[in-house]
Give the backbone structure.
Amino acid sequence: MKTIKDLNVKNKRVLVRCDFNVPLDEKGRIEDDFRIKQTLPTLEYLIKNKAKLILMSHLAGGKSLDVVWQRLKEYLKTKAEGITFLENLRNNKGEEENNDNFAKELAKLADVYINDAFGVCHRTHASIVGVPKFLASGAGFLLEKEVKILSRVLENPWRPLIVVIGGTKIESKIKAIKNLLDKADHLLIGGKIAEPILIVKEICVGRPWPEKRTVKEIEKLDLTSTKLHLPIDSLISPDETGQFYVRQSGPARVRKDEKLLDIGPETIQMFSKIIKDAKMIVWAGPLGHFEVPKFEKGTKEIGEKIVRNHQAFKIAGGGDTIFALSKFGLRDKFDHISTGGGAMLEFLSGKTLPGLEALKWNSKI
């Protein structure tokens, strides 16, 4: 895979795929511009080499990127003059369809293509896998850094390697769990994804079973592995607001009308003891419904235990994880914050991401 320094970008028109899919509040204002800041080294390098920049990204919900471009201009200041900013890529159906004609139209704008959007490298979209077929292509500094650090986790981690996985959508995480269970010294699971595993393991009884496809994937896990650690107690309530009642219980004593909304104190203690001796830690997904103060303790305390381990190299990724770390003032205490949630997990599942494979298609300089 070529990188930005392998390509002749001086005085060239350079099309940069950014991932500026930032969270917006109800008034359309940027809540967190972390992803914008992470791409600045790539853009500043190109500007220094007198490249003419054409920047493209997507934004959830088909929203205008104007607010993003305005924020970027504030960071680049006078250096933003002469930059071309494209509108939301996903407003053209050819983007998600990976239409060759749309990819060609984008490619006609430039001489060189740079992918600095790790967060969408698991997508087979035109701006990710189509454009590199028609232009000399390479990775930006952010994409290069993401690949190097996450490759270390898979290929040569510092040990003990501890992986913490939470959040929702077990379907999108089960393959990563399976792969990381083989590679990690300990795998700690919390959040909503723990529940279907506890159900299949017949610890959490009387609950609706997951879809057959998910059950089959869970059954492939070595559920007897001493490296796999599931919650032994939880905070439970019939309502995510916690307004009715909140009680602590083991998963086996959860009623049908109740929800597991946070890991309990015994689980926090168990996880904390394992984290204490780690040399490398990867965290993807909060361990409870942290948005509500009554259910934030698990995510907050485990985050604090991780940052107190000064000997460990600490990695976190995923939108909800980053938001939680920001809420608790912990984000800057991690060694690496991945800009991709789904992309990070797919990479750690051992899959070759389409966006990375695409950069091998065109070797012209």
Q: What stands out?
A: DSSP finds 15 helices and 14 strands in the chain.
